[in-house]
Amino acid sequence: MAAKEIFWIDAKLADLFTYVPDNLNPFFLLLTELGDKKGIGIVALVVLVWLLLIKRHFLGAAAIALSTALGNEVNKLLKDLIARQRPELEHLAQVDSLSFPSGHAMVGLTFYFFIAYLVIEGMESAAAKRMVVTVTVLLLLLIGASRVILQVHYPTDVIGGFAFGYIWVMMSIFIYTFFKNKLENNRK
Q: Which end of the chain has fewer CB atoms surrounding its CB within 10 Å, N or C?
């Protein structure tokens, strides 16, 4: 079964990460925390306070919370359905679930991409929008890379997590936009 196999792309991409010096592991452990439940929870508290108390953007707060929570549950479902085991290497970070798709990649992309979308939504400057997108993409790539560098995921787990996360966040943004437009039309 494909879920039990190591794909050639896993071996080739994982080889690239072997050149990362071990003294950078603490940096990647910190980055990986930003995609973990605890890290996302802390960032979510800050973002929800900003959305609810400062921006008074109740729909945005509800959408990001619901999208992230449901995305996490979908990730668990996918892991159980696919049942791919983790790499048989010394894990340099704590893990307690199956491997595919990477939850850090999927839920992290859903969460941080949605935050970026809500931040950009209120911006007029194209340069500022590009900056938010660049920082978000860089953060997500580093979180994904950390999972391979810390030997807890195959590269295809991360790629799959990003793919499922992108699909999930785009559906979430579509639903959010639908309700936002409906609310705006009702106010007119």
A: C
